[in-house]
Predict the structure.
Amino acid sequence: MPRTATVERSGPAAEAVRRALRGKRADLGGLAFQAALLLALLLALAVLVTLIADILGTALSVFAERGTTFLTDNLSSLPERAGVGQGIVGSLWLMGFVAVLSFPLGIAAAIYLEEYATDNRFTRFLSASIRNLAGIPSIVYGLLGLAIFVQLFSGLTGGRSLMSGGLTMAILVLPIVIITAAEAIRAVPLAIREAGFGVGATRWEVVRSHVLPYAAPGVLTGTILALARALGEAAPLLLIGGAPTFFSAGSRGFLETLQGEYTALPAIIFTWSRKSLRAFGESTAAAIVVLLAVLLLINATAILLRNRYERKW
Amino acid sequence: MTERANVGEPARVTAHIDVRHSERSGRAVIFDIRDLSVLYGDFRAVRDVSLPIRENEITALIGPSGCGKTTVIRCLNRMNDLIDGARVEGTILYHGVDLYDARVDPVEVRRRVGMVFQKPNPFPKSIYDNVAFGPKIAGFKGDMDGLVEESLHKAALWDEVKDKLKESGMALSGGQQQRLCIARAIATRPDVILMDEPCSSLDPIATLRIEELMQQLVADYTIVIVTHNMQQAARVSDRTAFFTVDVKQDAQRTGTLVEYDKTEVIFTNPTEKRTEDYVTGRFG
Amino acid sequence: MAAIGIAELQGNARRRRRESRIRRVFLAAAATAIVINVAILLSLFDGVVDFFRELVEGPGLGVLWNDTGWFPRRNLFDVKTVFVGTVMISLIAMLVATPLGLGAAMYLSEYAGRRPRRILKPILEILAGIPSVVMAYFVISFISPDVVQRLFASATFYNMLGAGIGVGILISPIVASVAEDAMHAVPNTLREASFGLGARRKATTLRTVFPAAVSGIVAALILGVSRAIGETLVVTLAAGATGGSAFTLDPLGPGQTMTAALASLATGSDQVKGGSAAFPSLFFLGALLFLFTLVLNLASDRFVRRVRRKY
């Protein structure tokens, strides 16, 4: 005869269980913890908002008074005449150097790492080198630029010139490009590669026809974000003459521009920050607004492109 | 003369043999595999495999998981070359030529020995481009449209896609995608088609269509198929090779070939007890 | 079947040659990373040798440990001054970044649903993208006068506390991001096991997820310290002490880190000339920075690898 368990419907034991299941003691500790965490996040948000509000507020008067001439005026020791024009031009040049030099080099390096390299000591050394470069403080890149481009190759570059700054920035950004491109390439499914090899394609044919097109959105996003990172960097430029108080651009030829003085948006912000806040405070805030606007534009473009080219197939 | 199944034993697999194929036993050997061992680093995945694969036959490799069937089949088109640390011992002769000779270009091998994978993997491109890719990189300069159509016909897919060649290959159903992969493999004009569990991710109806297709294709191609599905092996193949795992003293699980014979023999009257245990479902 | 010999299986020689050519090009591209490393090491080494040579021939090595401070133009190169400055800024920064970063990471990984996550993660990414020069301005225009000086009456306008807070805010997103990745990687089965035993979310987070992700969290913190050490612009502009700085342990006053000393020297009003020990001192500082961040990054790497291996 099978044994059946009897269910107690009453009695002290059942009562205790019932109470425990039903009674919801407020988990104060847990709630407080959750609130604290949320507070941490909101604090970060608050910082961001305060920062932007503060800067926008200060900068407003500059744009109200001078409008777009602020964007085109040259540097000057007089705050009412100083503008970021040369900084915008300089930053564009520097971005150009980065795009032309580090994008192809970085993507090629990433292709080697992900598609051609086998697991041996050399490859591990290579990966370690790249990770090391990514962690070096940016000002040390400035020292590299100083020693090699400004001093060693001064004949070619013209010393503390735009070219030296551009080359230095390209080197600074290179490890970031390599790492993000490698990540995008790694994300391509193995099945697609196998399919390519299966019909008798060589490694390069598989990469060119299948891997790269598939990874392109990710690579594109990564390189654009690297560009944004380069735009905001001023530390290395400080050692390579990127923070003059003023210089006359006049009309310079191509080579003269490359070998001549220059500046960049973040460098201008640095220089002006050092001056009296009373005099240059508003101009500095305005310059920051310009920088942040450009950064926002670049980031938005990256996100837009990523969403647009996300797997359509 | 047809073999009749032993109807009274429900546990046994019934095998219907198409006499047309097995009569001609004097077929040319396309792959002569001799004492093949494959190592991944220190791990010996498969040991001392010797089996001849004959022209215009469907040879099935069956056995439990991890017994090296996929490893063996991937040696036949040198796909294992792509795995870091993979090493091959023994010999594989393809049309009498040592497949692993230093002068042999694996890229050329893969053009001649096509492969269809377990999960259909069409390129994220149009149907047309999927089929055309292989011939294009092999340098085909002739009528590509005609070649694509011919390949899709042979894969029994043409009628379903002839109006949408420019559409994405990935928009097709699972079974259609696999037939697209077969068309893609055929397009490079191989003489062998390797199939690594081609139906394991498909529904039964799609599976049946592919099995029918195989039996049509075998007139023009040599087919080697790895399958987990014993009934499938019994249905379509001419010869069957049964693999199993050998656990040695060092606890390495190495695959070995137990028995290789005509399919009807393997499933009705195998020589080895291990084979009989497997095909009657006593293990595996 | 047509007969086949070795010749038929040899493939296209031109295609093969093209393949090896392409491979070599990509290898060369990757090798530039090694070349750059070597170049950095050489230029730093060269400068350091110059520096010590200038010292030995001039004021003597004693200036590296003097009681006055770091005043490069007066040939006073007290290493402990700038070292302590760096340590102080990093400490203050980590005091800010650890709760902020780990807290955000914990919330995003364990508590946030899909919708709050979709808003909060991009905000964290935006915060990560703030250029340090902008944060520097924020410190001198807001944090220093309106926060630090209001709280501490004795604080000067240029003080290390404000700068440290700024650096801390700057590095929080990185700490949060790496820590969140580590926590997210903890398999759900562990959480389910904890919940199944009757634990609530706080207990699960702190007692199950946190210890499981500890390698990644440590990596995140080490990474944060590494970034804090390398931060230049905030400390240069906000911690003050441009010409040089006396040894100080007071966070409410000005101070100088290794990076700030570098930047100040390089952008000083008088052109830094070779010949004295001031110019090569740049490379000396750079070498110190390189070494410290190298050690920290290697350590962080080791912890990250431990996380990856587990899962």
Remarks:
- DSSP finds 14 helices and no strands in chain A.
- The domain at 69-289 of chain A is CATH 1.10.3720.10 (MetI-like fold).
